[in-house]
Amino acid sequence: AMDHMENMRRRRISGQVEGEDVTFSRDRVVWREDAREGYPVHVECESPRLIRVRPADDEERAVEQDWRPGRPVWRGRINGRPLAVQVRRAANGYVLTHRGVTLELKVYTPREAELAALMPEKEEADTSRQLVCPMPGKVLSLSVAEGDRVKAGTPLCVIEAMKMENILRAERDVRVVSIRIAVGDSVSVDQILMEFEQDDA
User: Fold this and answer.
1) In angstroms, how far apart are the furthest CA atoms of the chain?
2) What is the CATH number of domain 130-198?
């Protein structure tokens, strides 16, 4: 329903290039990024305040609302039942929070959903054996050398950022395998500063 409201708003933007009228498909796919699964729906707008949404495998729902793009909370009724959801805009969709549960949902056309399903899933990098720089800055000092065994909480280096000294510490007991920086180096966000191995001694 929110995506449909934003599409209606786009139609009314002045100064658009002349040509054929743009029509928006009333068939959409609501895509759950965490489950990588799409839910086809058909949308019909009876008025700006009443939108009917029919999932492909379920009965139609009457969505009454007075939401406007940019508002942080969606309030309305679904089949007469009141509902309030926190809304944050995201790329191609929204991040919705209700009663402590947060979901990132994207709204695609059927063709876009087909292509989204083919996209490889991004794997999170394993940084458990690395010291990764949390901010851009300059290396002021190093507190360890390669081969040193350090305990959790031990200072490893100091990074100056925005005229503040930030001490980076070991998160667990490790042995320093390699140090990729030197005093005076400029470092960037997510740059690997050191590499470790588990210290079982």
Assistant:
1) 73
2) 2.40.50.100
> Using CA atoms, how far apart are residues 49 and 67, in angstroms rounded to an integer?
8
With 0-12 / 13-18 / 19 or more C-beta atoms within 10 angstroms meaning exposed / middle / buried, residue 80 is exposed
Distances from the Cα of 160 to the Cαs of 75, 134, 140, 164, in angstroms? 46, 11, 6, 5
User: Is 2-12+21-118 in CATH node 3.40.30.10?
Assistant: no
Query: Structure pTM?
Result: 0.53
pLDDT, residue 12, reads 65
Sequence-distant (6+) residues with CB within 8 A of 181 are: 139, 142, 157, 187, 193, 194
d(CA 19, CA 171): 60
User: What distance in Å separates the CA atoms of residue 129 and residue 195, rounded to the nearest whole number?
Assistant: 6
Q: How far apart are CA 114 and CA 25, in angstroms?
A: 15
Position 21 scores a pLDDT of 63
Low-confidence residues of the chain: pLDDT under 50: none
Q: Read out DSSP for 166-184?
A: EEEE-SSSEEEEEE---TT
pLDDT of residue 196: 94
- Paired strand residues for 89: 94
